[in-house]
């Protein structure tokens, strides 16, 4: 009798465990395609945090899985459009012919007044109010937008004037910095960020335009000795986190809304804060490696300001081509920045 009772209790426990396991198992695991090293902030901070948000918001029905090296950085949006990966992060400059509206937050201000977190918030709000209508992200769902920290001039040796870099081979990544590099009269070399360390160490280029974070995340402090620092940076790079639309629409409406609730402005701010924090890490890595941070001279700043003034009107023209009120969008963006300070 006692054996029968124990057997019954064991059977009941197994049934309860089995039922719990079925309920706990995720209905969907989203495949995230990523690039950059495992130590990059996107991989150490953004994906794990967003993954936790998604799992909590969907009550465990949706989880994420990060996969590396599914494709080169410049083809990541195609990876998601084609469904090879379901979520990724893209640098808009890799598809400069396609993305023009995204150059708005890249235009230099030569002012340190805003963090990447606040700029990313203003960027997302401007996208929702204006830029979304330009349909540059057709084929994918935009989950977040961000800009990295102030892009600076990172070189092997010191730069005391713009004459020091005329004709020099400098790596550029696309976007607004491509126009700025031309004005600085350098020889632009287009190569993915993941190849910059190799390009500098082998003498293929004399330097690059990137933020402080690259000194650590891409180990540039090991191969470059100097960063010429401009207030607010020479540019800001524009990024997005995008999702395959079929993947999103394949989820229940409740889970679609749950994912959107932990994306958008919330994810954009996380993305931006990651850049801020990574810049601090990169600066410390530079100091530890004996890297020199040289302030740009007033003459260098004045020369660059003059050459970048036409970028705003150029952006207005791009906006008009996409049937966007460029001046209204521009003013809205900077108003949002001021309110966030």
TrEMBL record:
InterPro entries linked: DctP_fam, TRAP_DctP_sf
A Pfam family per the record: DctP
Keywords (A to Z) from UniProt: Signal
Signal peptide: 1-24
Protein name per UniProt: TRAP transporter substrate-binding protein
Organism per entry: Photobacterium rosenbergii
């Amino acid at each position: 009798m006692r054996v029968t009772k124990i057997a019954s209790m064991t059977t009941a426990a197994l049934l309860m465990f089995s039922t719990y396991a079925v309920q706990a198992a995720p209905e969907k695991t989203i495949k995230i395609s990523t690039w950059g090293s495992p130590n990059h902030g996107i991989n150490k901070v953004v994906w794990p945090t967003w993954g936790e948000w998604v799992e909590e918001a969907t009550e465990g029905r949706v989880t994420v899985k990060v996969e590396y090296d599914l494709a080169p950085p410049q083809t990541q949006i195609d990876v998601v459009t084609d469904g090879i990966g379901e979520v990724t992060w893209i640098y808009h400059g890799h598809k400069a012919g396609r993305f023009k509206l995204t150059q708005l937050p890249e235009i230099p201000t030569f002012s340190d007044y805003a963090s990447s977190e606040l700029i990313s918030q203003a960027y997302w709000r401007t996208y929702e109010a204006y830029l979304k209508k330009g349909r540059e992200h057709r084929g994918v769902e935009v989950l977040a937008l961000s800009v990295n920290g102030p892009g600076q001039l990172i070189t092997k040796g010191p730069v005391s004037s713009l004459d020091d870099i005329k004709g020099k081979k400098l790596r550029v990544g696309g976007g607004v910095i491509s126009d700025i590099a031309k004005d600085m009269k350098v020889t632009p070399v287009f190569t993915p960020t993941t190849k910059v360390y190799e390009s500098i160490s082998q003498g293929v280029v004399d330097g690059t335009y990137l933020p402080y974070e690259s000194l650590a995340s891409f180990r540039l402090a090991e191969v470059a000795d100097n960063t010429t620092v401009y207030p607010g940076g020479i540019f800001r790079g524009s990024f997005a986190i995008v999702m395959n639309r079929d993947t999103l629409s394949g989820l229940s409406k409740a889970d679609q809304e749950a994912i959107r609730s932990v994306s958008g402005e919330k994810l954009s701010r996380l993305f931006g804060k990651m850049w801020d924090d990574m810049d601090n890490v990169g600066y410390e890595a530079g100091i530890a490696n004996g890297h020199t941070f040289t302030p740009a001279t007033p003459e260098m700043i004045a020369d660059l300001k003059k050459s970048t003034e036409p970028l705003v009107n150029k952006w207005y023209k791009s906006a008009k081509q996409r049937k966007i009120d460029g001046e209204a969008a521009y003013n809205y963006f900077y108003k949002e920045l001021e309110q966030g300070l």
